Amino acid sequence: MTTGIIGAMQTEVEALHADMKNATRTDIAGISFYAGELYGQPAVVAKCGVGKVFAAICAQTMILRFGVEQILNTGVAGTLTDRLGQLDIALASAVVQHDMDTSPVGDPVGMISGINVIEIAASEKINAALASAAAEAGIRTLSGVIASGDQFIADPARKAFIRDTFGAIACEMEGAAIGQVCYINRIPFAVIRSVSDSATGDAGMEYPEMVRRAAARSADLIRRYLTDRKSVV
Ligand code: ADE
Q1: 214 CB within 6 A, ligand 1
Q2: CA-to-CA distance for 174 and 153, rounded, in angstroms?
């Protein structure tokens, strides 16, 4: 069972890259894929770049070229709720694309034409294993909808729209694209995001430091999940 692990930015994958054994690098479509062993499990790790298109390219390539059988998306997110504090981890029960909108032709906001769904469910089995690995380590998690779009959310009105329209707990820029690729390929997936900011634009000077710490926390949960061999789907 090979696990694909995708982060958008270098900070989101660097700890995992450092811990890989016997890794070989293959460059495809401008993305470097590192295939090897991670915490005793076969894995492919890649930094995809920011946004839904890069994330989709990366996920599809992992499936077709590397035969991954599950995909984990790790990284940082903006929080949309008081129940999810700085550095807490959001586990996606489902993902939505908050910038998908064909409502002028009669569709619900967020509906993905063709597959005609708004929410794409993440793997309950992977989530259960992640939640128990987090609980054992005393890491706070909250399960709920994670919303993705090609926008860094830094405006309270947009934040409120995403929360109120989709009931989402966190926002980021890749998870739902990975979810869509996994859905159409029938591959289980999970989105693991540690909170780096409040999605209101008041992040301030400490933002880069929070990104670093949040990214490391998310990667640490993946380490615990793979190490505990809870990765069987
Ligand atoms: N990733 C981390 N914080 C984010 C935000 N506020 N909006 C979108 N993606 C993010």
Answers
A1: no
A2: 13
Contact 52, 191 (CB under 8 A): no
**pLDDT tens, residue by residue, 123-146:** 999 999 999 999 999 999 999 999
Quote the tokens at residue 197.
Answer: 């900011």
pTM score, two decimals? 0.96
Tens of pLDDT, residue by residue over 163-214, are 999 999 999 999 999 999 999 999 999 999 999 999 998 766 688 899 999 9
Joined together, the tokens standing for residue 111 give 């509906």
Query: Nearest CA to 129 among 78, 68, 192?
Result: 192
What are the distances in angstroms from CA 107 to CA 43, 99, 102, 113, 135? 39, 13, 6, 8, 40
Ligand 1 contacts CB of residue 147 (under 6 A): no
> What's the rounded Cα separation, in Å, for the pair 41 and 3?
8
Distance from residue 67's CA to the centre of ligand 1 (Å): 30
pLDDT value, residue 233: 53
What single letter denotes the amino acid at residue 139?
Answer: I
Cα(18)–Cα(13) distance, rounded to whole angstroms? 9
